[in-house]
Amino acid sequence: MSKSPMSKEKFTNQWLRHFAPSVSKDQIEKYVRNGCLWHIFSFDLLPRESFLVGDDARAAYNAVCDEDCIFCDVYGSGVTDKRKDAYWTASSIDEAVTELYVVSKDYSWTYIKTHEALCGPYFMKR
User: Fold this and answer.
1) Residue at 3 is within a domain
2) ω into residue 121 within 30 of 0, thus cis?
3) CA-to-CA distance for 87 and 103, rounded, in angstroms?
4) Is the peptide bond before 47 cis (omega within 30 degrees of 0)?
5) Coil, helix or strand at residue 93
6) Which domain holds residue 40?
7) What is the pLDDT of residues 31-49, one digit of tens each?
8) CA–CA dist 13, 64 (Å, integer)
9) Considering the chain, what is the average pLDDT of its residues?
10) Residue 82: its pLDDT value, please?
11) 2 located within any domain
């Protein structure tokens, strides 16, 4: 877990640096609206084979999530937090929140549950 909570802006910058370094600033400005980082995946700004979607993403998350995850509820406080017991599995995230970003403490993987029922969730390992 991070030593102290990060703002949504700092989390977004860290996430982009680790998971979308090849995506141009122009593409980010055009497609990543309102902080919806998952548009990196939905608009195919990264190669499709570099991430998982749907049930494959859920299974991957369930296999790697542990106590050292960092969470950002973009519609909640907008600051990061450690893993909450309520978010132990992908299905609990599906039921509990409208949009949630999860990363491992070393930013080696990310899981995003979107607010759109027909988009995602997404999982990516660096």
Assistant:
1) no
2) yes
3) 13
4) no
5) helix
6) 8-125
7) 986 678 999 999 999 999 9
8) 23
9) 85
10) 60
11) no
Q: Which of 54, 116, 111 is nearest to 88 (CA)?
A: 111
Structure tokens at 118: 């027909």
The count of residues in the chain is: 126
Q: Please indicate, yes or no, if residue 1 is contained in any of the structural domains.
A: no
- The amino acid sitting at 73 is D
Q: What is the pLDDT of residue 105?
A: 86
Cβ–Cβ under 8 Å, residues 98 and 85: no
Question: Model pTM?
Answer: 0.88
pLDDT at 100 over 50: yes
Give domain status of residue 74, yes or no: yes
Q: Using one digit for the tens of pLDDT, what is the confidence trace for 57-66?
A: 999 999 998 7
User: Cα–Cα distance between 113 and 37 in angstroms, integer?
Assistant: 11
Rounded Cα–Cα distance for residues 15 and 107 (Å): 8
Question: Whose structure tokens read 């993403």?
Answer: 57
The three-state secondary structure class of 27 is helix
CA 24 from centroid of its chain's CA atoms: 19
Domain count, the chain: 1
Reduced to 3 states, what is the DSSP secondary structure of residue 2?
A: coil
